[in-house]
Each structure stands twice: as C-alpha cells, then as structure tokens.
Amino acid sequence: MTETASGPARGSRAKGGKAGNKGLHIERIHTTPGMHPYDEVSWERRDVVMTNWRDGSVNFEQRGVEFPDFWSVNAVNIVTSKYFRGAVGTPQRETGLKQLIDRIVKTYRKAGEDHRYFASPADAEIFEHELAYALLHQIFSFNSPVWFNVGTPQPQQVSACFILAVDDSMESILDWYKEEGMIFKGGSGAGLNLSRIRSSKELLSSGGNASGPVSFMRGADASAGTIKSGGATRRAAKMVVLDVDHPDIEDFIQTKVSEEEKIRVLRDAGFDMDLGGDDIASVQYQNANNSVRVNDEFMQAVEDGGKFGLRARMTGEVIEEVDAKALFRKIAEAAWACADPGIQYDGTINNWHTCPESGRITASNPCSEYMHLDNTSCNLASLNLMKFLKDDGKGNQSFEAERFQKVVELVITAMDISICFADFPTQKIGENTRAFRQLGIGYANLGALLMATGHAYDSDGGRALAGAITSLMTGTAYRRSAELAAVVGPYDGYARNADAHQRVMKQHADANGTAVQMDDLDSPVWAAATEAWQDVLRIGEKNGFRNSQASVLAPTGTIGLAMSCDTTGVEPDLALVKFKKLVGGGSMQIVNGTVPQALRRLGYQEEQIEAIVAHIADNGNVIDAPGLKPAHYEVFDCAMGERAISPMGHVRMMAAIQPWISGAISKTVNMPETATVEEVEEIYYEAWKLGVKALAIYRDNCKVGQPLSAKKKEEEKAEITEKAEDTIRTAVEKVVEYRPVRKRLPKGRPGITTSFTVGGAEGYMTANSYPDDGLGEVFLKMSKQGSTLAGMMDAFSIAVSVGLQYGVPLETYVSKFTNMRFEPAGMTDDPDVRMAQSIVDYIFRRLALDFLPFETRSALGIHSAEERQRHLETGSYEPADEEVDVEGLAQSAPRAQELKAVATPKAESEAAKPAPQQAHTSAELVEMQLGIQADAPLCFSCGTKMQRAGSCYICEGCGSTSGCS
C-alpha cells in the first residue's frame, strides 16, 4: 500500500492560502506581537482532589496545580488527572497547564521547523503562540494520545484510530491477534474486516472444510478479554466487520444474540458461570462491536424484494442465494435484541474514497468515524463550536466563519506536522500512515450551538447550520492541505489516486452548491464554504493534496470535558439542567447557559426569560413554561426527557452533515424499549437512502447484563397502581389470622466482617448471627461508588435484616437475588466467587457459602473454590466422608422449584429502578428529575453514572471512557 516517496515542494502561494515555495507564512489570529499568550490571562493555584462520592475516599490528589482562572473545576480535574505526566509527588510531575501545553506545542514547532513547514523563524514562533493560545482558551483539543505522549520520553503515538487487515492464511490471522493485542495494550482500539477469510462452507487446499471467520473471532475475543483482565479498567475497543455477501453472514449476525441469551439461560438455570467455572468458556464475542458491511446491490434487493447471492471468498462465485429482505430482517432483529450488529454502507463509503487505486475501504475503527485503507491510522482534533458564536447578549448572533477558517488552517497544519515525528504500533501502520497522511479534524458542542442559536436539533434550520459549518470546516481543511502540498509535497499515494481524489473534492463542492440556506446565521457560512471549495478544486488541481483524508466526527468524550463543552461530537444536549462543580468544593444545579441565549435569539424579554429559566430549574423541561410559545418547545428538545429527540431526528442530522465529512460519524441512535424490529429496519433503510456511511442503534434494556431502565409507560403505571389498590383492598377486607413475630438479636452477637471487590467497586459486609445459630442481620458499607448504589445498599441491608428477624429463610433471599444483573459487575477478589453479576449477586453467594448447609446451597448451584476443584478431580462437589441428606435436599430446594423461583423475579429485576436521591453528575441529575435511570453503566474509576458520547460512554466526573480514546 506504501507509495513512492514525497516529491519536492512545488507550486506557489494560492489565493486564500499562505503557502509559498519556502514555507508557510503563519497569520496571527488571537495573539499580540511581543506578548506571550500566557501573559494575557490570570493564573491561579488549585487543589485537585478527586473523591468517591459516597465515602470521601481519594481517587486522585495533586495540590497547587496552576490553571487560568476561567477554567472550570471539571476541566482542571480531568486535565490534571488524565494528561499531566510524571509520577505524582515526584519532581518530574507536571504541575501546571503551561508545562503541559509547552510540552506539546514546542514539539510541534520543532518538528515543523525540522521539516521546513515555515517560511521563517518568526512564522514558527507565531505558529507556536497561536497553537498555545487555542489550547489555553479551549478553542480546540488534540485527541488524547497527543496529550499523553507528545514531548515525553515514551513513543510519541499521536493516533487514536487504527484499522488492521487480515488475509485468508493462518500467518495473517495470528498476526492479527498480535497486532490487535499491542494496540489494546496501549489503550487504543482497532477495527478490521474478516471477509477475506474463506467461509465454513468452502474447502481448504487439504480437502477439509474451512473454519470460517466466526470461529477465528473466538480467539481474538479471548485475546482482548485477557488483555483487558490483565489490568485495564475498561473493555478493549474493537470493531469486527463482515461483508453481507459472505457465506457465513448469518452466523456472524447471530453471534452476540446467541451469547446474550446463553448468559441469561445458564445463569438462571444455576450453571456455574463464575470465572474459572465449568461453563464460562461457552460465553464469547463480548469484547467487540460487530458491523455488517452492506453494498448497494444488497440494499436494492431488499428494496425490490429480490434474491441476493452469497459468494465464495476464493473464487467469487455465488454458492448460495438468500432472500435479501429476510436477511435484512435478521440484521434488524439481532440489533433489536442486543444492539449488534451495526451497519456500514459499502457503496456510499467507497463512492467518497479518495484513494481507490490503493485499495478499497473495508473497515473502520471501533467508533466507526475513521474509514480508510487497511493498516492505517488517523490522528484527531476537535474544535469547540461555541467558541465561534458571537453573541451580544441581546439576541444578535453570528457564527465567526473567518476566524473559524483560520483556526482550522492552524489545526490542520499542526496535525500534519505530527505525522512527521509520530510513532506507530506496527511497521505497516507507520509506513501507510506516512504515505497517506490521514487526518481527522472535527468538532464538539454542536448540540449546544444549535440550541443557543434558537434551532431545534431535529429541524431544517438546525440541519442547515450544522451542514454549513461542516462544509466550511472540511473545505478549509482540504484547502490548507493543498497549500501544504505546495510546501512539503503531496502525500505519497496522491499521484496514483489524483483523479479519484479530485472527483471526491468535486462531489463535496457539488453537495455544497445544492445545499439549502435557511436563515441569517447559516447563509454567510454557506457563502464562505462555497469559496473554500472553489479554492480546493483550483489549488488542488495545481498542487495536489498533502492529506488523503481531512475530517471525521469523533465522540470527543474526554477532550470535550477538557474543553468544558456542554455536548460531545454531533450529539444533542443531554438535558436542560446541568450539575456544576464549584471551586473549593461543593456543587450546584444550573440551567444550561444556552437556554437564555436561545430565548433571546427567539425574541423573549428578560422578564420572560427569567420566568422560563425558573420553570426549567424546577421541572427540568419547558413544558407549560410561563410565556413560552409551544412552537418553540422543539428548540429545547434533548437526548433525554419528556421531549426526547426521535431516533429519525438523529439519523436526519447525520445525513445533513455526512456529505462534508471525509470519514464518518461516531454516533449511536438510541431507541426506546418499546421500539419494534420494523422500526429498526426503517432506521437502517432510511440511513442508506439518506447517504449515511455507518450507523448503530441501541434499544433501551436490550442487553441482558445492562442495568438499564426506561421511564414507565403510562399504561404500565396504571396497571401497577391498579394491582396495588387491589392488594390494599384485599388486605383490609381479610381477617388477619397470623402475624409473624420479630425475633431481635441480643446486644452481643457473633458476626463475620468480609471485605470484597466487585468490578472495581469496594465494600464491606458484616453478617451477625443469633447465639443459637442462624443469620440475623446484614450491614453493607460501600466505597468507590456513587450515592445511588451506596444509599440503596444501606436501605437494602436494613430491609433484608428485618426480613430475617421476622423469619424469612436465608435460602429464599439467596434464590431470589443471586443471578441478578446490574453494574458494577465483573471480577471479585473472593476465590470462592470469582465473578459476580452485581453487588447483590455477590453478597448472597457469599452469605450462602457462610451460612447455608452444603446440601441447600449445592441445590442452588453455589459452591466454594475447594468444592469446584473437588468436582474437577472426582466428579463430585460433595466431601468424600459426608453423605448427602436426600430428604433435606428435596425439602430445602427441589431443582424444578428453584428454577421456577429464579425465573419468577426476572421481570422484577429488570423493572425500572428509582432515580438517585442526590446527584453528582449531570446524568444523575437528569435521572433524579425525570424519574428514570440513564442508559449507561457506572464509571469504574469513580462510581458515578456515565453518559453517552458518540458510540461509547464518558464519565463526566473523572473523564474516563468506556473504550474510545
């Protein structure tokens, strides 16, 4: 894939650019001659102490760090804990933002000078100062690997996104395992397409049947799981793609559906699913996102109701014909059931491919925003769109298109320089990335910008403004790339792909020319974008291009928080009320600052705005807000709440900006639990028609192991209320014949205190007994968790203790609460219970082991490590010198009765759970106001509720992510 070496600098300075034969002339944007950006701001010292919400234990502490006084507490905490290098408490530890920014911008400046990017030392200095100013003022951010690695003694990896390749040979498959493992070890993610591997329906050269790609996925999944369990706190970020015409496509579609169901059935049936147990090895494919790559031929067959051929990998001949619509239905059914597979549209992706002569685009990175050649990588940077909104506070607004373009030029220049000094995880990735120089400029805060300007996210006006900004960004990026080609040469593969690259540039320009302008905000941006694309065509034809790709839209999780963005990537706002940390400790609940801006833009007076904001603060929504016109409700629609944006609203936004994104868009379309398979089909079909490149859906509560809940539907509420009233009436009418008596424990009582860890969450359990034996009370103390879990555990332990004292048998609790699934879940530090599906699951397994006789807990499928080892050696859990009390076993827990008892509370365990009583993040605040639980796990680092960012999750409290850099 590697092309010839870069040619000499050619061309001259072009209209609208700064390129010349001797280097770039860098223009000042924000800085003042003779003054360093650091000298223009006020600095202060802060103490960064990040604690667990419940017990106050310290996760991270560094005191006296230096930051500008306008940086938020959250941004300071995240940058200090995530990006400062050096061991805490040592002289090598960075102590302020100046050191961090200098480490990066000075490295970029030196590399730019070494590779002759600048016309003079003065231009290099302006570049350094402008880059420092933009980072200092949170105007943009590089992706996390730049903050981690640049300017340090360790390898200077700058890329966050990787695509690998695998061929139909055992050597290539084993290389895949190794390369993927090295990328996971470094905390990054990778994707690849397995379609070159022959199917299980084809023959090997030896005459036997091939294993097929699905079988090799097992090995890669096990490898990812092993590396994760070797110390990482988040799952491996991994994407596996298979073409829709692969003969094993149906097996691929069903992999995760079958495994999710297997987890449910085996645990509910009492099988030993602990780590190291007899049955855990049968659960596979849990460490990857899966996507089906569909082509236009297949989608046309779905539309026409025709047949579609599955093709042999070696010969290309059709070996089986299937009903296209039925296969498409299976894809939708699987996604409905467990959120996998996602879908990638091969025809659309490769129609916008700038380098088809060097190979097709077959795969993506784990979050699906980077799509280019195999064995390549992409470094990302994202702009904070709210920094370019000019607002006089009286409703007069404009988007600063000219300044936006200058910042894009600056950032693209820096991103291209980084490839000159960057390190890469494999030689192939390094060679190909240097040959094609893929960049991924993008943005964050789109949702906040649209609301602040009075645009509904799901509206023609909102989509027009988003499209205009996206077009201007990518057009400006490619124009700068063409100018760079005149200075340091085009990318190595350009000569071979010149015609295709120019064709794609014309497609972007044509799409810009046919775009619809809506109002005074987007029209000037469209005009600037039109000029930029004209320059791209003209300058690019003369100079070529320095970069084969310019833009993507990434999740912007951690970096979005570091820039104090209200919204990530292309996402809408989570809710109208936010949780804000305060300097010196404490927090407060505030209405989004974008709300008053939007109301002024819509023409409301200050008195009206004050009343509407007060209503939102009390209710969390705008419904029935005093003086607010119902026609304006849609402007304040959010990702969650009474007026949540519809799934198709998200798809339409993706379609509105896709024509001006070189790569794709990281986004998951959330659907309510009540969504149907037909609605999933519609989403996947309409996304293809609208020209989206890739898409995934998530239906609330579809995953077995996810602690999710949606707000109760009105009819469900009515049904529950009616049942409760019937119960009360029955209790009143009946004559009470028996009432249990509470048997309290004496003042002095024997007890056992056990410390435990479940999925990174620490806790203590004290179990006290009656003097004449028998468990009488349980106390649970949680740490490393948020207030919701710890508070509920306190209340839960009291309820269980009272029940025990009223005579409820312990085995009843054990049968009801083991196998219950919710986060935190995972590995424990208890050799007898190595894996738990929840805190509750662990607690009652431990109590059963400590207080129930062998016969009773054996019938419940609960055994100690010693007993499991004995079973492996002798085939029996039972000690050799003991006899099983068959009569007692039958009386305590008959197998059929226990299976029924375990299955009965399943619906109860998956029912909606109460919202937290105290919020510690914006996500928890939304839960508390709306009476729901957000569709997200708890953070393993600090225990708070995470929130969605693109196709992964981000913790607002500490900046940790669920798998995407």
UniProtKB/TrEMBL annotation:
It comes from the Bacteria. Residues 749-849 form the TSCPD domain. CDD domains: RNR_II_dimer. One of its GO terms (molecular function) is ribonucleoside-diphosphate reductase activity, thioredoxin disulfide as acceptor. Residues 1-22 are annotated as: Disordered. It catalyses: a 2'-deoxyribonucleoside 5'-diphosphate + [thioredoxin]-disulfide + H2O = a ribonucleoside 5'-diphosphate + [thioredoxin]-dithiol. Residues 1-11 have a biased composition (Low complexity). Its cofactor is adenosylcob(III)alamin. It is an enzyme of class 1 (oxidoreductase). Residues 48-138 form the Ribonucleotide reductase class II vitamin B12-dependent N-terminal domain. Pfam families: Ribonuc_red_2_N (PF08471), Ribonuc_red_lgC (PF02867), TSCPD (PF12637). InterPro entries: RdRp_reductase_class-2, RNR_2_N, RNR_lg_C, RNR_NrdJ/NrdZ, TSCPD_dom. Its EC number is 1.17.4.1. Keywords: Cobalamin, Cobalt, Disulfide bond, DNA synthesis, Nucleotide-binding, Oxidoreductase. Residues 159-698 form the Ribonucleotide reductase large subunit C-terminal domain. Catalyzes the reduction of ribonucleotides to deoxyribonucleotides. May function to provide a pool of deoxyribonucleotide precursors for DNA repair during oxygen limitation and/or for immediate growth after restoration of oxygen. Belongs to the ribonucleoside diphosphate reductase class-2 family. This is Vitamin B12-dependent ribonucleotide reductase. It comes from Streptomyces pyxinicus. The lineage of its organism: Bacteria, Bacillati, Actinomycetota, Actinomycetes, Kitasatosporales.
